[in-house]
Amino acid sequence: MPTDLEAFNELSFYTLTHGHPAFIHQLAVDAFTAQHAAEHSKPITVVFSLVGLYLHLEHGFSGEQVQRAHMRLARVRRPWQPMPLPAERGEITVHHVLAEAPGPARDAMIERWCASVWAAFEPCRSAIAEMAHRELGVAPTPLAARTAGRH
């Protein structure tokens, strides 16, 4: 069985050559990065991945829009708040994504993977939503909209 990183590299080949107008590669990067964050990970890395998942899942941003948001955040020169890392990071992994046939089934599993990882980081949600509001002008989502958008 390939390592998680080897599996992610294989998935990256798929997402980068996909041609999907929503640029699903960015979503896979954010899910993988958040799921594999460690105590030694830079806070900016964890924050950006969580912001990406938040914007995509709660605000319907495409991967391309998430990537542009990351670029806007990168212009902000300041220390980023470390996020608490949950012990469990979601039940879906990159291996589950690769187990699906390329095409709509795999793309749907990428969505489920993002939702699984984001749900694991629920304790960070308010800090991420506040930061996205402050730095990007993204209005916080009401509870009803958040639960309706979960996969």
Describe this structure in words.
The protein has 151 residues and is mainly α. The protein has one domain. The chain is 63% helix and 0% strand. The chain has eight helices and no strands. The chain has helices at residues 4-16, 24-35, 43-59, 63-74, 94-99, 104-120, 125-136, 143-148. α1 packs antiparallel against α2 (24-35), α2 packs parallel to α6 and α3 packs across α6. The longest helix is centred in the middle third of the chain and has 17 residues, at 43-59. The chain is globular, with a radius of gyration of 15 Å. It starts with a helix and ends with a helix. The relative contact order is 0.17. The model has no long low-confidence stretch (mean pLDDT 92).
Distance N to C terminus? 28 Å
Q: Return the domain count.
A: 1
Summarize the amount of helix as a percent range: 55-70%
Any idea what the radius of gyration is?
Answer: 15 Å
Count of individual helical segments: 8
Order of helices and strands: HHHHHHHH
How would you characterize the largest beta sheet? none
Mass-distribution shape: globular
Structural class of the secondary elements? Answer: mainly alpha
Short description:
The chain has helices at about 5-15, 25-35, 45-60, 65-75, 95-100, 105-120, 125-135, 145-150.
Walk me through the topology.
Layout: H1 4-16, H2 24-35, H3 43-59, H4 63-74, H5 94-99, H6 104-120, H7 125-136, H8 143-148
List keywords for this structure.
mainly alpha; 0% strand; globular; 151 residues
